[in-house]
TrEMBL record:
Residues 141-183 form the Zinc finger CGNR domain. It comes from the Bacteria. It holds the Pfam family zf-CGNR. This is Putative RNA-binding Zn ribbon-like protein. InterPro entries: ABATE (IPR010852), ABATE_dom_sf (IPR023286), Znf_CGNR (IPR021005). PANTHER family: BLL6575 PROTEIN.
Length: 193
């Protein structure tokens, strides 16, 4: 299993709120299950008591992304290390009784299978996944969306380090807005001749 894929847990958790608009998606256990990774055992086992913990972890993760995006790498690392200390991983080798194509057990590593609470398990996986991606790709690959009124985050895995938006939706909206602004300027400049 590619442990760096667990960074998506961090991205998804942070993107459950938008401070720019006040939107909040962690309003209930049911809503949490809709917006966080479905394959997470922690999400399936979560209760209402886990929501405040996840919101607190989300704030810490958002700080990591914002510090990294602002070029303050030491502050981003300090924030991430604080989260890692609060939410340590508990790795476990698992095979789920599955067999690989060669008939041998499909052994792989899971993180935080024995955490005290579902929120602690999710937090540990998200923080460790983000730490793996940040150290493998570089902290400059952690970004915040450049679209107006969006505060989404992302891990830039593009080959040319060019990602600027958290989603295709934000990229499209920004491109359409830029196109319309250009057309308005051209129209205004054409009338002035």
């Amino acid at each position: 299993m590619d442990l760096s894929s667990y960074a998506e847990y961090a991205v998804r958790l942070v993107n459950t709120s938008n401070p720019a608009t006040g939107e909040e998606e962690l309003t209930s256990v049911e809503r949490m299950r809709e917006v966080l990774p479905l394959h997470s055992q922690a999400v399936h086992a979560a209760t209402a008591a886990d929501l405040p913990v996840l919101r607190e972890v989300r704030a810490g993760l958002r700080e990591v992304f914002e510090q990294a995006a602002a070029g303050r790498q030491a502050a981003a690392v300090a924030a991430l290390n604080t989260l890692l200390a609060r939410h340590p991983v508990s790795p476990q080798v698992s095979g789920h009784d599955r067999r690989g194509p060669d008939g041998r057990p499909d052994w792989h590593i899971h993180l935080a299978e024995h955490a005290d609470t579902p929120a602690a398990a999710y937090a540990a996986v998200a923080c460790m996944g983000l730490a793996i991606q940040a150290t493998a790709l570089g902290l400059d690959r952690l970004g915040t969306c450049q679209a107006s009124r969006c505060s989404g985050v992302f891990v830039d895995t593009s080959t040319n380090r060019s990602r600027r938006y958290c989603s295709d939706r934000c990229a499209t909206r920004a491109n359409v807005a830029a196109y319309r602004a250009r057309k308005r300027r051209e129209s205004t400049a054409g009338r002035g001749r």
